[in-house]
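Each lists chain and fold; for instance:
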Amino acid sequence: MLVLDVRDAGSFDNSHIHGAQHVSSANLSGVLNATARIRPVLIYCYHGNASREYAQIFSDFGFSEVYSLDGGYEAWRSRPPASGSGAPDAGLEQWLVAQHFPPAGVNAVIANATTPLMRASHIGDGKIVRLLIAAGAEVNARNADGNNALWLACVGGHLDLIDTLVEAGIDLDNRNDNGATPLMYAASSGKAAAVERLLAKGADVTPEMLDGFSALDLAQSIECLTLLRPKRSGRSTAQSDAGPSPSPGP
């Protein structure tokens, strides 16, 4: 789910729901254009009024699942603590401390807004990844570059963790601050095995970076080209057969 904060920038910088992205009239158009219409969107403001207006805009642009947070950020901030949350696994606590996170900080951040899940995915620690997910780690958290844990798993070449993260609900086509997806990274790095696994999980080949390059354009090996070309041509043919896509609404 994409979580959007539509309060003023100062309030957002002071505190916000972890993983939220700040949106205003200045960058709204960019967010609308960069987000898949099938991705769920949750919008919040101070008390739940302005967020309804933003939610209507997203609905008008063809988004199929849009929510406005009742009561806004203030209601969320003053909510009672969740009941029944158990203490973190002792081994997980030790790992967190060794990686410079607080012992119970499954959603804490260190340099570059790196979360424990991102760190474990990068180094390929599958056991810790599973423990973090079970302990409530935010799967779709993004670091300071806009990348999620799936990108880091691709950097490390950990195919099993690609499976684990996708099964946990991570955004397979998350676009970072440059508009790049994990599939684009894997293709541009010549990581054919990661490209193959991402495609098998349903990664979209059509997104383009801010400079207009797709995963196919960025492919750095024959193996990656061989994997991506049929997917791209198949998608183009299907779109052609179906005729022009309807425009998104006003």
In short: The first strand starts at residue 2 and ends at 5. The chain has two domains: 2-77, 90-242. Residues 222-242 form the longest helix (21 residues). The chain is about 45% helix and 5% strand.
